[in-house]
Amino acid sequence: MIRVAGYYTDSIIDGNKGIDTIIIGEGIHSGSSVNGGEGNDIVRSDGLSKGLVINGDKGNDTIASGSASDFSAALGATITGGEGNDTIVSFTKSGEKSKIDAGVGAEVIFTVDTSASAVSKGTETIVFNAGDSVAATKATISVGTSNKLDSKFKITYGNGVDLLAGIDTSDKIDIDFDPADLVKLNNKNLTDVLASNVVYEVTGLFTASTGLFEVGKAGGTDYIYIVGGDNLTVGQVFTNSTNKFVTNDALVLSDFG
Predict the structure, then answer these.
(1) Do residues 5 and 94 share a domain?
(2) Nearest CA to 206 among 222, 190, 193?
(3) Is residue 167 one of the residues assigned to a domain?
(4) Are 217 and 210 in contact (CB under 8 A)?
(5) 3-state secondary structure at position 136
(6) What is the DSSP string of 201-251?
């Protein structure tokens, strides 16, 4: 285990190759970065850490920016997961801005706002680029007889899919185009062609333990967001698009950009 305490600037902390546990204590850390290196690392910042850059690098990393025990938060943190199936938990405070770029893999991202005020909240920007959800293309689908995206349509993400939770009105999904619209896909024809400059929403029920998404399931309050349809059909997009994620937060067009 590597434990670093105190105030420091313009510093680099490397875990290098292997499975590392790195814990950063409270302090001002402007211009400084923590690099997990190759391996399934655990990187955590405790207390009010300000200005820190955390890089998980290659591997299935667990990164926590802030602490659940006392709801302390990273102030102005930048988190990059790198290649691998990472789990990222980011705490932020009122008036502060954090940035999360999980990278390529099947990621799980939790954002937690510790602000006492419902008006002045922290802002977390989640970067979601084309190709980030390549693992989701390994999905298998089950289709009914109606040729529509209805309640008979089921998707199983055997290799995982990006999961986002805790997104609120102050947060942003940073994508690599300016979307023209957000369109709901439930009950659309499977042969309909999806535009490249539109975000699409599918409502249903997601079971994380099995990777099963049941489209239009009664009582379902989970969502698939397809970030650009790449001129694929509705029937093709679930096994061909690398630009989608699952969340239990209903998003609007202004959340993307």
Answers:
(1) yes
(2) 222
(3) no
(4) no
(5) helix
(6) EEEEEEETTTTEEEET-TT--EEEEEE--TT-BHHHHHHH-S-EEEESS--
Neighbours of 206 (CB within 10 A): 22
The two beta strands, 162-165 and 244-247, are: parallel
Q: Is 256 among the domain residues?
A: no
Rounded CA separation 41/57 (Å): 9
**pLDDT tens per residue, range 21-43:** 998 887 777 788 888 989 999 98
| Cα(114)–Cα(68) distance, integer angstroms | 10
> pLDDT tens digits for 188-208?
999 999 999 999 999 999 999
Residue type, 1: M
| Residues 88 and 146 reside in one and the same domain | no
Report pLDDT for 117: 47
Amino acid at the residue 227: V
Residue 181 pLDDT exceeds 80? yes
Same domain, 107 and 225: no
Q: What's the domain range around 218? A: 137-159+176-251
Distance in angstroms (rounded) separating the CA atoms of residues 234 and 181: 16
Same domain, 151 and 123: no
> How many folded domains does the chain comprise?
2
Section 5-21 average pLDDT? 84
